[in-house]
Amino acid sequence: MFLITDFIAFLAANLILTQALGTSTLFIAAGNRKSLVATASVITIFTTFGSASAYITDRLLPVKYTDFTLFFYTLAVGILYVIFLSALFFYSREKFDKAKKYIHVSAFNCAVMGTLLTINGRAAADSSLMHLGRYMLSGIEAGLGFIVTALILTAAYKRLTSSKVPASFRGFPAMLVYLGIISMAVYALK
Amino acid sequence: MSSKKSHIFDGLLSDNTVLSSLMVISPIIICGESLKNAVAIIYAFSIITFFSVMLSSFVPKKLPYAVKIIIYALISSLVCVPVKLAAENFYAESINRIGIYYPLLAVNSLIVVQTEAKFFCMKKLRMTASLFFYILGFDAVILITAFIRELFAYGTINSRMVDVNRTIGGLAESFGGFIFLGIMCGIYRAIRSRISHSSAKEDNDVSDN
Question: Distances from the Cα of B20 to the Cαs of A145, A166, B13, B110, in angstroms?
Fold first, then answer.
């Protein structure tokens, strides 16, 4: 019972279905199932480590420079972007060639930056959330939410792109309506 | 000549940022439910995107792709600061409602994806004109979306009551935004394919003669 309650709470906090964050990225990656799940997984890594760097930024940035929060978040994600690419390059050249496109798509988008800004907003409203563990947990949660949505989209991908759907609505328009219906269900859970 | 012109105007209709490429859709889904929000988003998106892309065009092309993307994102996040400070005077009410979607405009796909894929492959003057129409395309979509959603969700136009018999509250919610945008995309595609079909037919008729 607790698990069901937790799962419902997890779904209700989904950033794509409730705030449409990262929807464009989801559609860019929606070319095929494999890339959709791979992109969602890389985004989870970015949101998790990005949240940790957002915590450090929030701790170190003086209040009078809060207007530059986005700049420092961008810088932090940029550093992570370079670290991930370099690590993968030195680990395996073959894997680097295969995975670099997912890293390119996953670094700068509304899913990652939106997650960091949402966590920042929550911490600003409630100071008890201002610690590293909480930031990273929120980052993981947001990333997992992205994976769940990618899986939900993957489940219906074939039907939404099938020739039975009218040509004008086939693909992206049908996916948007489908996500809208899932979002409506999640809205009811709140 | 005509093909060159059609490329410049592409962003407005045939390759619309939102309806064709499905980019920058989060602010439209969440904030595009009232004209006041839409105007504030249009102001921010237009200025941030235009100046960011123009400034980014001076970044050396020889740099590695990842480094260039990081620099573009940093430039746009800096451009965002004065734009937001000015907006706090002009659109104080809307800024609070828009919330995180305001700074998120700085990492929109037009800046971090399309710059390398499209704009920087063009000559500067052509790029400026093309960028202008891509921005205009986004502005038009959010304006139309906000007008219809506000009218049918709240029964108002720019916060003024109008005579609408039945309102649909769900249109103002995120799910309403998803569904409405999906339907709009479908209609856009149908119109676009009809236009291209009829122009192809005209071309065939001309070549037959």
Answer: 26, 17, 8, 13
For the purposes of burial, counting CB atoms within 10 Å of the CB of A4, is it exposed (0-12), middle (13-18) or buried (19 or more)?
Answer: exposed
Query: Nearest 5 degrees, angle CA B77-CA B78-CA B83?
Result: 90
The domain limits of chain B are 2-208
Using a CB-CB distance cutoff of 8 angstroms, which residues of chain B are in contact with residue A176? Answer: 22, 178-179, 181-182, 185
- A20–B178: do the CB atoms touch at under 8 Å? yes
Predicted model pTM: 0.91
| pLDDT tier at B1, thresholds 50, 70, 90 | very low
Instruction: Please measure the distance between the N-terminal and C-terminal CA atoms of chain A and give it in whole angstroms.
Output: 17
What pLDDT was estimated at residue B204?
77
CB spacing of A71 vs B77 below 8 angstroms: yes
**Per-residue pLDDT tens digits for B86-103:** 998 888 888 888 989 999
Note whether A169 and A176 are within 8 A (CB): no
In contact, A186 and A17? CB cutoff 8 Å: yes
Identify the bridge partners of residue B161 per DSSP, sorted by sequence position.
Answer: B156
Per CB-CB distance under 8 Å, the chain B contacts of A177 are: 178-179, 182-183
Q: What is the ipTM of this complex?
A: 0.91
> Is-contact B149 A158, C-beta < 8 A?
no
- DSSP state for residue A86 in the 8-state scheme: H
